[in-house]
Amino acid sequence: MQYRVLAELKKCLPPDAMITDEERARVYECDGLSGYRQLPACVLLPETVEQVQAILRICYREKIPVVARGAGTGLSGGALPVQDGVVLGLARFNRILDINPLQRSARVQSGVVNISISEAASCHGLYYAPDPSSQIACTIGGNVAENAGGVHCLKYGLTVHNILALKMVTAEGDVLEIGSEALDTAGYDLSALLTGSEGMLGIIVEVTVKLLPKPPFSRVLLASFAEIEAAGRGVADIIANGIVPAGLEMMDKAAIGAVEAYMHVGYPVHAAAILLCEIDGVEEEVKDVMAQVAQILRSAGADEVRIAKDASESERFWAGRKAAFPAVGRLAPDYYCMDGTIPRKHIASVLNRITTLSGEYGLGVVNVFHAGDGNLHPLILYDVSVPGEFGKAEEFGGRILEVCVEAGGTITGEHGVGVEKINQMCIQFTAGELTQFHAVKTAFDARGILNPGKAVPTLRRCAEFGAIHVRSGRLPFADIERF
Amino acid sequence: MIQTGGDRLSDRKLDAILNEFRGLIEEANATGVPLVIRGGNTKSFYGRKVNGTPLDVGPYTGIVSYEPTELVITARAGTPLREIEQTLAAQGQMLAFEPPHFGEGATLGGVVACGLSGPRRPYAGAVRDFVLGVRCLNGLGALLNFGGQVMKNVAGYDLSRLMTGAQGTLGVILEVSLKVLPMPEFEKTLRTEVDPSNAIRLMNEWAGQPLPLSAACHDGDYLYIRLSGKKSAVISSIQKLDLENCSNGTEFWEALREQHLAFFDDPAPLWRLSLPSTCNTEDLSGSRLIDWGGAQHWLKTAERADVIWETAKRLGGSATLVRGGDQNGMIFQPLTDGLFALHRRVKQAFDPNAVLNPGRMYPEL
What we know:
The complex is a heterodimer of chains A (483) and B (365). The longest helix of chain A is centred in the middle third of the chain and has 18 residues, at 283-300. Chain A is of the alpha+beta class. Chain A has four domains: 3-89, Uridine Diphospho-n-acetylenolpyruvylglucosamine Reductase, domain 2; 96-213, Uridine Diphospho-n-acetylenolpyruvylglucosamine Reductase, domain 3 (2-Layer Sandwich), CATH 3.30.465; 217-322, Alpha-Beta Plaits, CATH 3.30.70.3450; 327-471, Alpha-Beta Plaits, CATH 3.30.70. In chain A, strands 15-12-14-13-17-18-16-19 form an eight-stranded antiparallel beta sheet, with helices on both faces. A five-stranded antiparallel beta sheet of chain A has the order 5-6-10-8-9. Chain A is built from 16 helices and 19 strands. Chain B has 365 residues and is of the alpha+beta class. In chain B, 29% of the residues lie in helices and 24% in strands. Chain B has eleven helices and 17 strands. In chain B, strand 11 (213-218) and strand 12 form a beta hairpin. Classes of the chains: A alpha+beta (483), B alpha+beta (365). Chains A and B meet through strand 9, helix 7, helix 8, helix 10 and helix 15 of A and strand 7, helix 6, strand 9, helix 7 and helix 8 of B.
């Protein structure tokens, strides 16, 4: 980047808000997908909307790529810097501006950490529902960029269902207010379009979220199955009986074994699969529904159904699920986490396909996932120090995503496309659809400066792909729960 | 999979209809005479008037797939809303956003294009919250699929939700996949006599508590609420609230949704103000009915449009002239210059020659 431009950028920021030295810039060279790294020309950490505007005006004029970044916990390389580009870090946009308990909304800056919204609303008996597993670190702006989900989105929805308004700085540096604190606004539903747009359409600086009353009571049930088909049937039967659980998770035999070896939470190690089902609501209702779910799962073929006796047993049931990723990290030097979503009815058949592929590639695979909404997270085990194994794991991952698309699903349920799944976008979408995406991008960012090369592949180059690369069981942000 | 009754269209017939639509779009691009997209023609009162060649989506009809255990239904845009609701009800499921029909012939495509939701909206979500995927033709006649049939999907921009409520100005919706939900096991409507400002306060206070609310409105005299869910949860909430039982709840909410209550039977222009749920609209003259737990005010008034738009803006919301206005004038809340410029570029991205319902929402869009 030209010295002239760097100097101009520096002039519109406070003294300590620009990083150009390599040592400090290293922190920003990757996000949670640490297999991909790139040093940016500089990292900018503005504190005000006016500073963000000034940065974008300069970058737009000079056609300099701008990659927005929250906490950098994303799992698809969405915040991977671009060579000679700017990383626009929003960590200093960390203020909760307003909580309106009667209206049940909170207006926060985009760098506010997800869980701190719920913490701030807690004294009013309210919380912010979407709970991605990285919620102790990830920011609300990043959640909007990725349309983050979580364990409870089957009942409470994704980020898109839980936000009311956005303040956005456009590629050209103008401020736009999208949505409002009302339930809908005039014109196109741009807040839906911006949610999940992976920083390609604008820089989100402020978010107004919906708050919900905290459920007064919840319980977890654990059911074990001798066959994966029966567990899949159990999932379908719960839904067919008119029950929408707060969470419904499945783990296969390999995952159960890994967790038991790591945590000793008392999971049934001989089971082919277990289901964890959380029900929340008023106490009478939870108890009724729990009994009904237990009956449904027994009829579906569960060998054993345990209903947590109290809150601490509920927590213990969850603890194993929440520790699954680090537990799997002990099984092999490296693993890849995939993120396909499929119709629930295909859970058993897709898992069987994955097992077959695992044999073909000679790589182990562990399944632990959000069964309630059909969102799979197969973890492919490999060792990067074995020549050729990394490439095999990538190829295996790609085949899994193709199986998901064939089953009527999608290549990404909640992690985003980023740089990771850009290749599979060509499988899921036609040239006409990709062309439409590019036209929308141009409507927002005619010069293509915002996060170039991510999310939507060019028609010519549907190349480059990967997945979460975990080296030697060391997760990036190892202290964050992942599930 | 649930097979549905009625005449199922053959693939050949469907292709023929699609080709006809594409031909119309091609012709419109060539001649510059725009298309007026129509389903059951039950919501033509809503929005600005468009002149042009009709494109009738009605014949493109039929439920494509419905699997209750997936909580997803996929149907063509011309499918009657009633058929969809009956098919779902037979399996104990429903469209949780409670769409208004506004007439016998209402179609799925019209519901999605107009983006209208009923009394359950603040508690269950709007049409856009349940749209999972859309198949459509853009303004150049390209056949495109966005989203899908799964609950979680972040591949590509969310263009299916963008199309929802865009009133056909971005594409001809051909097929929609919607998330559906189980019908509640038990429902009860309660009411109490209270003035509007106290009603607004109560509706907001209750929504902040773990009550199974599914509707709340004030008709000028009474505050009505509906509780839905497991019987045990509803009963325990009734005991907490101590309100008067309302025996004709089902009819009341349906009449509200369809605008058949006495309030709506008035020739004065009908405005809809979508506002933060704690706002009061007392400054505006006329009679009002407050729905959506305080977030939607229906106003029968002779006030000037610019006064209403100004008030709605000041309160942090927007206003729409729903019925009884001049359909050649402005209907929807004016947008700021920056937002309107962006809207025009978005429209251009889908329909560069402005052949799809141009002007239905705003002039030049």
